[in-house]
């Protein structure tokens, strides 16, 4: 018997992807990190019989929604609603199975705002919230503050071009008054400096926070970003910021800052909706919940998650902090970081619908060339080569050959040798997808290993070809859901591929007909989906582009 089919005893898992700003579509820079990883891990767990879900939502009150509205002559609500829908389309194009929440939806909005306010109220009751005065620029005629998306300059920590409250280059956070060479990104003749009051959360349990970061297996470089932040700003994290687009809270024009503790509140809110939808008795973040909770995010979100999400959760006695954080570095488009604001990007939906690329081909390539351990590049020529030679060439020929030998009627048992090979590949893949030390590239490489097993088979051995196909549906399932599901269904199985059903042998009434899953594409076809900036523009947004 295939050892990998034995039941896996594990608690249910809930993955929470970082909440994107709905001021643009999700591109492959986003997908290569937190979005694809959560989906791959959830599919891997479900394949092995473990309950796993993925949730997220659009951070509609982030200030760059306001900027996009000003640039397009639209309203903030219209911008957020439009791009929420486009983000969902991008997730669907890459087969990322996430329950994606729109907090501006009429039936959710008031509850969402109240939920965020209660989060800050609870932290205030525990005595950790303090009011600080800070200097910002302000235009009375525009009623606009030079903060968030409306300010840019030089990072006070690393000297890179930066903006908003945080720096992409070093991951540091700062106050608007700390930004060197600061300038407003709006035109107004009456800009003046004013003092505002903002709320911050004092992190009084630094030792517990550091200890939890160590237990979670956070890479040391990410922990160092947090340490530098504390050294520069003190052991506190922003809760509110001056502005008018957002959820009012605190003194003056203060609104809830959605990019630190607001991410924790949004995670809790999405989990509350999940609890209701699944009829759970306990919230997944309840102190005694058996759910394993996992957040996925990029290096530019380090302070937001380690200080704002984890730090606040450690301070909050009534919730269980995230069990794991899964991180990634930047993903570049041929040497330059993917960027919505600079229109330097590639989107999955364009590749699939406009260039004729299989979603599984994109997922496989991003799995092999991903920024999990360091920055990586999406290079068009490399992608075309992998699609055309590795997938449409080599793999497709093996799939077609194997299906040509599948017969109707009863199927003989597999050989022990083939099953030992499959066990080895599946267990190796599982070791690379085990929390918290995942390695997507090596896990995707197990698809190659099983492909090579198929290449060595005697093509006249119909039984071996059948079981190789079924094994491929298992190994490929986390990365290639479309191909995996098609193989599983053509071999007579219903539902999603599951290891526990691997040894079942449905009797086929008719020979299965395989149609190609991967087609060769020209570089010119892929180029139609690629946007490259003509020239680098000044630093501005800061993060989550």
Structure explained in plain terms:
This protein has helices at 28-47, 63-72, 76-93, 109-125, 206-216, 220-233, 261-277, 302-315, 348-355, 359-368, 380-404, 416-432, 440-456, 462-476, 481-490, 523-527, and strands at residues 13-17, 52-57, 99-101, 129-139, 144-146, 151-154, 161-163, 180-184, 192-202, 236-238, 240-242, 254-256, 292-298, 324-328, 331-333, 336-337, 345-346, 376-378, 530-531. The protein is α/β, with parallel strands linked by helices and 545 residues long. It has two domains: 13-328, Rossmann fold (3-Layer(aba) Sandwich); 350-526, Orthogonal Bundle (Isoleucyl-tRNA Synthetase, Domain 1). A hairpin with a 6-residue loop joins strand 6 (151-154) and strand 7 (161-163). The longest helix is centred in the C-terminal third of the chain and has 25 residues, at 380-404.
Features of this protein?
single chain, 545 residues, alpha/beta, Rossmann fold, Isoleucyl-tRNA Synthetase, Domain 1, 5-stranded parallel sheet, 4-stranded antiparallel sheet, 16 helices, 42% helix, elongated, disordered C terminus, aminoacyl-trna synthetase
List the SSEs and their pairings.
Elements: E1 13-17, H1 28-47, E2 52-57, H2 63-72, H3 76-93, E3 99-101, H4 109-125, E4 129-139, E5 144-146, E6 151-154, E7 161-163, E8 180-184, E9 192-202, H5 206-216, H6 220-233, E10 236-238, E11 240-242, E12 254-256, H7 261-277, E13 292-298, H8 302-315, E14 324-328, E15 331-333, E16 336-337, E17 345-346, H9 348-355, H10 359-368, E18 376-378, H11 380-404, H12 416-432, H13 440-456, H14 462-476, H15 481-490, H16 523-527, E19 530-531
Parallel strand pairs: 1-2, 1-13, 2-3, 13-14, 15-18
Antiparallel strand pairs: 4-5, 4-9, 6-7, 6-8, 9-10, 11-12, 15-16, 17-19
Helix pairs in contact: 2-3, 4-7, 5-8, 6-8, 7-8, 10-13, 11-14, 12-13, 12-14, 13-14, 14-15
């Amino acid at each position: 018997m295939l050892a990998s089919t034995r039941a896996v005893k594990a608690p249910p898992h809930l993955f929470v992807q970082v909440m994107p700003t709905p001021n643009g579509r999700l591109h492959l820079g986003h997908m290569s990190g937190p979005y694809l990883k959560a989906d791959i891990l959830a599919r891997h767990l479900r394949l092995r019989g473990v309950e796993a879900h993925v949730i997220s939502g659009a951070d509609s009150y982030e200030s760059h929604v306001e900027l996009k509205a000003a640039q397009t002559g639209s309203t903030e609500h219209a911008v957020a609603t439009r791009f929420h829908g486009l983000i969902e389309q991008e997730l669907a194009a890459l087969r990322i199975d996430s329950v994606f929440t729109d907090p501006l939806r009429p039936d959710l909005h008031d509850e969402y705002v109240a939920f965020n306010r209660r989060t800050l109220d609870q932290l205030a009751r525990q005595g950790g919230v303090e009011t600080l005065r800070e200097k910002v620029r302000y235009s009375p005629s525009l009623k606009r503050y030079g903060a968030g998306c409306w300010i840019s300059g030089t990072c006070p920590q690393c000297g890179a071009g930066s903006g908003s409250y945080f720096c992409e280059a070093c991951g540091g956070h700062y106050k608007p008054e700390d930004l060197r060479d600061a300038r407003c990104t709006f035109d107004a003749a009456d800009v003046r400096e004013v003092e505002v009051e903002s709320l911050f959360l004092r992190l009084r349990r630094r030792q517990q926070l550091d200890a939890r970061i160590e237990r979670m297996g956070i890479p040391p470089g990410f922990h160092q970003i947090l340490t530098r932040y504390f050294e520069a700003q003190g052991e506190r994290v922003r809760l509110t910021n001056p502005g008018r687009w957002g959820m009012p809270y605190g003194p003056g024009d203060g609104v809830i800052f959605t990019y630190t503790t607001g991410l924790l509140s949004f995670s809790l809110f999405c989990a509350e909706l999940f609890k209701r939808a699944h009829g759970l008795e306990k919230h997944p973040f309840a102190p005694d919940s058996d759910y394993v909770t996992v957040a996925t995010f990029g290096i530019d979100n380090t302070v937001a998650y380690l200080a704002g999400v984890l730090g606040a959760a450690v301070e909050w006695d009534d919730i269980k902090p995230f069990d794991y954080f899964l991180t990634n570095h930047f993903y570049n488009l041929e040497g330059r970081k993917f960027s919505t604001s600079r229109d330097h990007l590639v989107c999955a939906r364009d590749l699939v619908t406009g260039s004729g690329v299989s979603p599984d081909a994109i997922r496989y390539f991003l799995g092999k060339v991903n920024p999990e351990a360091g920055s990586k590049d999406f290079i068009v020529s490399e992608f075309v080569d992998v699609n055309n030679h590795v997938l449409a060439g080599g793999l497709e020929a093996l799939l077609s050959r194997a299906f040509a030998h599948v017969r109707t009627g009863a199927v003989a048992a597999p050989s022990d040798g083939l099953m030992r090979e499959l066990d080895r590949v599946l267990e190796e893949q599982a070791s690379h997808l085990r929390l918290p030390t995942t390695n997507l590239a090596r896990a995707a490489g197990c698809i190659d290993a099983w492909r090579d097993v198929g290449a060595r088979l005697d093509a006249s051995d119909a039984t071996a070809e059948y079981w190789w196909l079924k094994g491929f549906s298992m190994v490929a399932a986390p990365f290639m859901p479309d191909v995996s599901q098609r193989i599983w269904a053509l071999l007579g199985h219903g539902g999603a591929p599951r290891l526990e059903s691997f040894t079942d042998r449905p009797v086929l009434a008719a020979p299965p007909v395989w149609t190609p899953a991967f087609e060769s594409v020209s570089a010119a076809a892929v180029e139609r989906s690629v946007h490259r900036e003509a020239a680098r523009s000044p630093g501005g947004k800061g993060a989550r582009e």
